[in-house]
Design a protein that fits this description.
about 200 residues, mainly beta, M1 Pyruvate Kinase, Domain 3, 7-stranded mixed beta barrel, two-stranded antiparallel sheet
Length: about 200
């Protein structure tokens, strides 16, 4: 029996980005610029997006898992890809009182449209793209001060509200279960686990 249930939801890829070095700047850039040919297709391997700062099969542990490991411990990399929602970014922008919030300012890798409440997809949900590329949802990406600083550079005084206004709207991190290509306009099918919520949080 299948454990994952295919939903009726279909998303569309709006933007594909990568971040060269998050230690230098969280801001990501168009990943299709150096894509081979004129298709704009980007290959995503089992390590993630080529050249992205978060690519790799393993990573050093960070503050996200500080209660589990000493910082810098080598662990499985389940935060290879950062996914955000075009609709949710518009909501954040409205809450901040700015016209638009580009996904690049959040260091995002993929911006999708058409999937309601994208950030709230349960962990272990699968996003399957037209090519067969499949991502596994890891954890909600909590708002932090780094995008706030970028927002302040463009809209002084507005970034300080990001951490509270973007809660449950900032997308999630994910890892690659099946490699494949992705390009703007590709469709994305959503599969969710049927497991009930854990009663002892």
């Amino acid at each position: 029996m299948a454990v994952l249930e295919k939903t009726d939801l279909t998303g569309v890829v709006a933007e594909i980005l990568f971040c060269r070095d998050s230690a230098a700047s969280i801001v990501s850039e168009d990943a299709t610029v150096n894509a081979p040919g004129e298709t704009g297709e980007v290959f995503v391997s089992l390590e993630g997006l080529p050249g992205d700062t978060h690519a790799g099969l393993t990573r050093p542990s960070c503050v996200r898992v500080k209660d589990l490991y000493p910082e810098g411990t080598e662990i499985r990399n389940t935060r290879q890809i950062t996914v955000v929602s075009q609709e949710e970014l518009a909501i954040i922008a409205d809450k901040l009182g700015i016209d638009t919030l580009p996904p690049a300012w959040l260091g995002a890798n993929l911006m999708l449209s058409g999937i309601p409440h994208l950030t709230l997809l349960p962990p272990s949900s699968r996003l399957q793209f037209s090519s067969g590329l499949t991502l596994v949802v890891d954890l909600e990406n909590m708002p932090c001060i780094y995008p706030a600083r970028v927002i302040d550079e463009h809209h002084p005084g507005k970034g300080s509200k990001f951490v509270t206004k973007a809660k449950h709207l900032r997308g999630f991190t994910a890892w690659v279960e099946r490699p494949g290509t992705v390009k703007a306009g590709d469709t994305v099918a959503v599969h969710v686990p049927g497991q009930a919520g854990y009663p002892h949080r």
